[in-house]
Design a protein that fits this description.
The protein has 482 residues and is of the alpha/beta class. 30% of the residues lie in helices and 21% in strands. It has helices spanning 25-32, 46-55, 70-73, 87-95, 106-110, 112-120, 130-141, 155-161, 171-187, 269-284, 312-332, 360-363, 377-384, 413-419, 461-466, and strands spanning 17-22, 37-43, 60-64, 75-76, 84-85, 100-104, 125-127, 193-196, 200-204, 229-235, 252-256, 290-294, 336-338, 342-346, 349-354, 357-358, 374-375, 393-396, 429-432, 440-445, 452-457, 475-480. It is elongated and about 70 Å long. It comes from Seminavis robusta.
């Protein structure tokens, strides 16, 4: 049994982890420098790691794929099926189910496919630096100043080490708890700051508007006791990962673009789009009274002006096919609106959507395949001026400059000047995406504080990179109806 005389709380300095490290000497030395690590058992081969797992207990297994050949860690379990597994991770799970498994690989961090593969074969986290490793340790073990780490002397102590490790009885609850902590860490990237233009506006984290944690996935629409508000669910930049999302109930569902993921010229974008529409049909439309979506720069098949001349025949056919299935879908669903510089309404609210994007060839000197709806500064100025003065809910793919991003390749200053200029009607809600690094909520106040716009960056890409099996977190807002 664990030592009953141990104090109920202890500083973080008392957390000392035992790590089995399959890596080079340099990587092992780097891992040993982590403040939470007390003992590193360094091995250089998979065979040595297997022997160590059979003889000893560890809190964590860290594997550096850049040092160890990947095919020694991740293998095909069957020539016919081609399924990929990790015999090393499988052994670790059998020998010590509560031991966490981490992949240390810069390539896996930078490649979505490699990242998913590592998670698929049993990794709990993928990191590429000492800081990320320590952050993962804190997240996985839920390390706080009030909890100390027991020793590895007994199995009971191991059970206390990793209270959030899923079991058959509490898998859903424990996975959600772990996911929430990781998501909150991401959300902290949305920093409070000020910016100056022709008028003074304050951009601040909206402390009174918190993302709601939904613990049940109801198949019914969100019930309102009164007609005083509309519950809005917002996501963006799902990049063909929409089926990984768990969408809570609500009244209006908004998606602000980058439905697909244009990785290379051979990506079947129309297939992505058709699957997205099928997902809307089966999972979203039955649960929401209103569904609104726009395109993003990856959704080039919806932008006839951006057909790549190298693949002009295929892309023209793809565009025409995408238009046909979209039109057919809209005809079958009277509660769905696809907006392309156009307006719709819902319960007295005027909703405007535009997929217009920043031209990266102009501002960065680089041309991308994913250049749908990219327009020059002069063209964007004309389009932004068409946003109705009476708009209540605004969907754009790019964010306004200054709200969580000062990068003019990812946010548009002309949009900021148009929508938040002094003297105009301010939307209740402005939703966008595009900038994957600034998921969160902010509020834009006009000069005399008489009105404000709530701004949502609902990018799911970074969240799903953390947890592909359900880390996406839609933003939820209750809009008051006057």
């Amino acid at each position: 049994m664990a030592n009953s005389s141990a104090p109920a709380s202890a500083p973080v300095s008392q957390w000392k982890l035992s790590v089995l490290c399959l890596a080079s000497e340099d990587k092992a030395s780097l891992i040993s420098e982590c403040s939470l690590v007390e003992r590193v058992h360094h091995v250089r081969t998979v065979a040595a790691a297997v022997q160590a797992l059979e003889k000893h207990s560890y809190h964590m297994l860290v594997v550096a794929l850049g040092t160890t050949p990947e095919d020694q860690v991740i293998q095909r379990d069957n020539i016919q099926t081609g399924n990929l597994t990790s015999p090393l991770f499988l052994l670790a799970m059998r020998r010590s189910p509560l031991m966490y498994r981490i992949v240390f690989s810069r390539t896996a961090c930078q490649s979505r496919d490699s990242f998913r593969l590592c998670i698929h074969v049993g990794a709990d986290a993928v990191v590429c630096s000492k800081e990320e490793l320590e952050s993962s340790m804190r997240g996985l073990f839920n390390i706080t100043d009030a909890v100390a780490l027991p020793t590895l002397s007994t199995q009971d102590a191991l059970l206390t080490v990793a209270p959030n490790k899923p079991t058959v009885s509490n898998e859903v609850v424990d996975n959600r708890r772990q996911r929430e902590k990781q998501l909150l860490d991401v959300a902290r990237g949305w920093k409070t700051h000020r910016f100056q233009q022709s008028h003074n506006w304050t951009v601040a984290l909206h402390q009174k508007v918190a993302r709601l944690v939904v613990t049940s996935q109801s198949s019914t629409r969100h019930p309102h006791e009164t007609n005083s508000s509309i519950r809005v669910i917002h996501v963006s930049d799902t990049h063909n990962q929409h089926r990984l999302l768990k969408i809570p109930p609500g009244d209006m569902f908004l998606h602000s673009g980058d439905i697909c993921n244009y990785k290379n010229p051979h990506t079947n974008l129309v297939e992505h789009f058709a699957d997205f529409l099928d997902w809307l049909h089966n999972e979203i439309c039955p649960r929401f009274a209103k569904v609104v979506f726009i395109a993003g720069n990856h959704d080039v098949y919806l932008d006839m002006d951006k057909l790549d001349p190298r693949y002009i025949n295929r892309n023209r056919d793809a565009h025409q096919h995408a238009q046909r299935i979209l039109q057919s879908f809209l005809e079958q669903h009277d509660n769905v609106s696809y907006l392309q510089n156009s307006t719709t309404t819902y319960r007295g609210l005027t909703i405007y959507g535009t997929p217009t994007c920043i031209c990266r060839a102009e501002c960065m000197g680089k041309r991308y395949l994913s250049n749908g709806f990219e327009l020059s500064e002069k063209e964007r100025e004309k389009l932004w001026s068409r946003i109705p003065e009476n708009v209540d809910v605004l969907l754009t793919h790019v964010p306004p400059l200054g709200f969580g991003s000062d990068d003019e390749s990812k946010a548009c200053k002309l949009l900021t000047q148009q929508v938040h200029r002094h003297g105009r009607h301010h939307p209740l809600l402005h939703v966008f995406g595009h900038n994957h690094g600034h998921y969160g909520v902010a509020q834009a106040l006009n000069e005399d504080l008489s009105s404000a716009t709530l701004l949502l960056n609902g990018c799911q890409e970074s969240l799903l990179m953390i947890d592909p099996s359900g880390g996406g977190s839609p933003l939820i807002v209750d809009l008051p109806l006057s």
